[in-house]
Amino acid sequence: MLVIGIAGGTGSGKTTVVNKIISSLPAGEVAVLPQDSYYRDLSALPMEERTKVNFDEPASIEWELLVKHLNELKAGKTIQMPTYSYLTCTRQAETIKVSPRDVVIVEGILVLTDPVLRNMLDVKVFVDADADERLIRVISRDCVERGRTPQAVIDRYQDVLKPMHSMYIEPTKRFADLIVPQGGANTVAINLLVDYIEARLKKASMSKK
């Protein structure tokens, strides 16, 4: 099993990179564990307090569960991945069945911040993008998917996203084996990554024979 971590700022194009990797490999060969599925459950807090929680710092993620699930996949076991609602800031009752695959991608803004998880990654990728481009994508996404107003998104960007990016996310770039500038638009970097993945899988397959 090849475990790949894909990190980068909010709106940098991580999901686009992940989707292009999946589409370039044989169907059913890749499993994805989004970091966002492992946000801590806030159902015990009143709704007013939930909205004040900082989702862009490492403490917001239940790393222990993510690491446990990744270890189980590496051991050949199927997991029940949690699902999370941004509207209610709570973990949902529904889970998603994830079976072991030749390639497992762990994707999210904070993926390279946790040292335990980081040491489990065979390949560490940082998707980079200009701050203005990221802001535009965040506004488009949050207004449509999360019911926020443009002004609310901009305020959150200034008050939370920008400082948290500087404090936690940008520094993890130094851990990356590959930096992908221009996000999902950088086909050269993505193709290089896919070629590397295919070579690793081929080598692993030959060693089993």
**What shape does the CA trace take?**
globular
Q: Tell me the Rg in angstroms.
A: 17 Å
Largest sheet: 5 strands, parallel
In N-to-C order, the SSE pattern is EHEHHEEEHEHHEH
Report the total helices. Answer: 7
Task: Give the end-to-end Cα distance, rounded to a whole number of Å.
Answer: 16 Å
Low-confidence spans: none
Query: What's the average pLDDT?
Result: 87
User: Based on helices, strands and strand pairing, what is the structural class?
Assistant: alpha/beta
In order across it, which strands form the biggest sheet? 2-5-1-6-7
Proportion of helical residues: 40-55%
The percent range for strand residues is 15-25%
Give me the count of strands: 7
Short description:
The protein is α/β, with parallel strands linked by helices. The chain is built from seven helices and seven strands.
